[in-house]
Write a structure and sequence with these properties.
This protein is mostly helical. Helix content is 73%, strand content 1%.
Length: 348
Amino acid sequence: MSGATLAERPTDRAVKAPPLRPQNRQLLVLLTLLVVAIPLPLILPPAQGAVAVRILIFLLMAVGWNIMSGFGGMFSFGHAAYFGLGAYTSAYLLVEHGVSPWIGMLAGMAVAALVAVVIGYFAFRYKLRGAYFALATFAFAEMLRLIVTSTEFTNKAVGFTVPLIQGSSLSLIQFPADSHAYFWIALALAGAAVAVSIWFLHSRTGRYVTAIRDDELAASSLGTPVMRYRLVTVALSAAITAVAGAFYTQYYLFVNPDLAFGSAVSIQAIVTVVIGGIGTIWGPVVGAVIVGSLNDVTATLLRTPPDFLSFLQGRSGLDVVLYAILLVLIVRLLPKGIVGTIMERRRR
């Protein structure tokens, strides 16, 4: 009797499926967001569709910056260098040699990653930390801007204008101005970047990188090759940022030194992640939506302000003011960003 009872007990209980691993849950959330976003250009008016593409470009930049500065703890103020290298490499190969922007994008990723490794090697070799490392990255981005501005090879300050073609071409990433294809390509690139970010954070390399970020001395004393893992991190970060630069060139069909290597590019990447949450997977996503939408709101406000704000019409710089106010509020009220603060409160 007891044997029969024991034999029946396992069937009396429902077998529960094991919980999903964190990376699988995050990938599932990402897939859901991508599916929801796919029909957006069919719903949004053309002007808002352009804003959505800009948000995705911001997202690419933010994911790249977050891998290096959020996960790796290496604060960069010069990510415009990698954005510009991706933009200029793609533009040069297309305009001067007729190479497909897809190949140019890959070439830009390789160039940016190589440059990032060289910069990172010397910075880490001479133990630059904190503000000194940030200043070094800023100085390098400015140096590239000045070099490109004065070099005939890169058309000096004129930059490159991508030649227009008739009709559509996926291989050249050119479509009519009102085409939804730009959004879907940007969405695919941004989704791939977030997926790589998830994979990296939960990989063995990512665990080593975050351990080095939290306590470099302890990680080094346990035999962790600190230099190697940091160089892998900066290379991946630069490659993703270069994708943003290459797509930016194809979308706007123009690039010059200030647009590619200007400090505004680095600031946009930083602000996006700080608002969303540094060192989180979804911080860049939330930050990109807020920053990209804020640009459109300020542009509309300056173009057609309500009567009581008519003094703002035609003025410039309002977006910078709003960025500053928003940053102060975020740092004061949500010091870990929107997503970071939510995650911290959920743990309590």
